[in-house]
Design goal:
Layout (H helix, E strand, L loop, with lengths): L2 H4 L6 H14 L11 H8 L3 H13 L3 E3 L5 E3 L4 H25 L3 H18 L9 H18 L3 H11 L17 H22 L3 H24 L21
Helix pairs in contact: 2-4, 3-4, 5-7, 5-8, 5-9, 5-10, 6-7, 6-9, 9-10
């Protein structure tokens, strides 16, 4: 789907513009060191300047953009510590979701639907010839499972806050999967994550809220480990869309 096509499917012009620009920023389609003006972006998205202006303000409020005194906007860069905090926040919120599901009880059909996604992930990871070419399928299923757990709470507040947390660069559950190298350690890491999925679903089934929450929060720490590994492994960041948004810490600081 093209950028122009994608913005014709959302409810309002401002929301469409904000969603598309956010995806372009996180997806690495905009340059981190480039100044962008309302006029440039309006032309790029085939929209008028009014919704673009409102969208830019929204993304500035979210911390993705910074205004330039001379006019226009530049994308913010994020320290690894800031990304780690965003991942921790997402894990805390997802932990709350699964605890509520376990304590309130989740109907059989919905539990089975989520478990079926987990089974598909397990089958994918169980392939003897699993390679980087399988990552897009893994990312889709992983995102579907996480969103399924969130949606199952039927809590508009939690759904909204987790969507906000996921909008932060590299904070979503699948954001750093692209650094997978195909070595034994990386494969083991994905398998550990899938084991977490299985345990969380079982904890929900057996109404063990504290256990479900603890495992889900630990699950988010796998993303923090991925981030740390990406920062230390030559070439790993090059495989992550939008990696130019990650600012290396100043050694002298």
């Amino acid at each position: 789907m093209s950028v122009t096509d994608s913005i014709h499917t959302s409810p309002t012009q401002t929301v469409r513009a904000a969603m598309t620009l956010r995806d372009m920023i996180i997806g690495g389609q905009l340059e981190a060191d480039q100044r962008y003006t309302e006029t440039q972006l309006a032309t790029m998205l085939s929209m008028s300047r009014t919704p673009i202006r409102a969208a830019l303000q929204r993304l500035t409020d979210e911390g993705l953009l910074s205004p330039v005194p001379a006019g226009g906007y530049v994308m913010r860069q994020f320290l690894p510590s800031e990304i780690a905090e965003a991942i921790e926040l997402r894990g805390t919120l997802e932990g709350l979701c699964v605890r509520l599901l376990a304590e309130r009880g989740l109907d059989r059909d919905r539990t089975q639907a989520i478990a079926a996604i987990s089974d598909r992930i397990a089958a994918l990871l169980g392939k003897t010839d699993f390679t980087r070419a399988d990552l897009p399928a893994y990312e889709r299923l992983n995102a579907e499972l996480h969103q399924g757990l969130v949606d199952a709470t039927e809590s508009s507040l939690l759904i909204q806050e987790i969507a906000r947390a996921n909008s932060r660069p590299f904070a979503s559950a699948s954001a750093l999967v692209g650094m997978y190298e195909g070595d034994h350690a990386a494969r083991s890491h994905l398998l550990i994550g899938q084991d977490h999925h299985r345990i969380v679903i079982e904890a929900i089934r057996t109404r063990q809220g504290a256990r479900a929450e603890a495992i889900m929060r630990e699950h988010a720490r796998l993303s923090q480990h991925n981030l740390s590994r990406a920062m230390q492994t030559r070439g790993a960041l090059d495989r992550i869309p939008g990696a130019s948004l990650i600012r290396q810490p100043d050694p002298a600081a």
